[in-house]
Amino acid sequence: MSLVLVRIDCRLIHGQVLETWVPHVRSDCVLVADDQLASNELQKTILCMSVPGKIHLEIDTVETLVRKLLANRWEKNRVLLLFSDCQGAQRAFSMGLHFTSINLGNVHFEEGCRQVTPSVALSRNDLTCLRELSASGVQVECRAVPNEKPFFLEDVLRIR
Fold first, then answer.
1. CA-to-CA distance for 56 and 85, rounded, in angstroms?
2. Cα–Cα 20 to 30 A to 87, which of 46, 60, 61, 112?
């Protein structure tokens, strides 16, 4: 399995992902791991229509995609894996999908969250998940597009 990017982005597939990250990491396969989206056929159809035909797209639950990834379902692909939230990424990691870095692209502000970059707001639960990933050796960075300077979790924790 070649996981070329693991990203948390509440918007999932959009221009930043398709126009900057996919070419940057030369991905030919985008996986969206999201339990809620996996059961919404209309939203899945809309997202499928937004992805160019040369890129394989699969949308499913976190558990199903992790199981398929661990079985090397896409071993010949360069996989870009998207989660809509920190909890999904942490759950995938705890199921045995071990990745070395994770990118926080967009996490929208909600009540009780702290804005840590212009596009990332984190709750206590988000920070707990990210700290657990970091303690397991995962490098956590915030940046919307590849040409931005990354902002690392240690920087986020320092401003708290």
1. 22
2. 46
